[in-house]
Amino acid sequence: MFNLTNKVALITGGGSGIGFAIAQAMITAGAKVVITGRRENALQEAVASLGENASYQVNDVTVLENLETLVEAIESSVGAIDILVNNAGINMKKPAIEVTDEEFQRVIHTNLNAVFALSRTCGKRMMERKKGAIIMISSMAAYYGIDRVPAYSASKHGVEGLVKALSMDFSPQNVRVNAIAPGFIETAMMQTAMNSDPARMNKALDRTPMGYFGKPEDIGMAAVFLASEGAKYITGASLPVDGGNSIGF
Ligand code: NAI
After folding, report:
1. Fold of the domain built from segment(s) 8-187+216-242
2. Which atom of ligand 1 is nearest to the CA of 140?
3. What CA–CA distance (Å, rounded) separates 74 from 200?
């Protein structure tokens, strides 16, 4: 019931970190996976290690006018997209009063505007076919207040709002929309945010009842579940995969 054989998955930002682990997990579950990103070298290396059921498309999600062409290219070469994982994202950590409007908009554009545009493009096609699963990658920053990440927090709250609103629009046509809210997961993004800030690292760990940070594969397995028939009645949900961080005192 968690098998993804014959499914085609598009994973944005799939060349590294959480996106790469989602690609690995979905391939293990039988899917054909297309990863996207901006750097061809990184994508080539990732596909070489993912194996024959992986391919890539060079694509910057922030160039919204190219997303229709991206989806068309994948559907005509690999097949109809059954699963969209909106994983590509950026973070920016600095005190709110130092964040410029330009910086704020850059984060919102990548983490929210692009997520909406690609979900709309894929969602339209999925609704016509009456099947599909869209997975957003949210964050603990959408669950509770974290200092010095105002744009990132706003973008991830927006993503959680999209999950609910798009579920209302898409799910009557059997297209499910859900989020995974990762806790603190060991990737380059987390290391950048934490390595220079041991106080934040300890705070995050202290409120994580499982007592350790997550691995990208933990998100990969949850994504397989939400994409699979095993989750066929789940839509509009946000699943924390966080070692309990979101409920920690
Ligand atoms: P990462 O920095 O390793 O991966 C982000 C990926 O997105 C990279 O492959 C990057 O090239 C890609 N990307 C960024 N901007 C892009 C653009 N304009 N077009 C195409 N691709 C682009 O970081 P990580 O940790 O794997 O993050 C993946 C997702 O998980 C992000 O949405 C992040 O907000 C989310 N997340 C991560 C957490 C963590 O603890 N690592 C916690 C909560 C959420």
Report:
1. Rossmann fold (3.40.50)
2. 43
3. 41
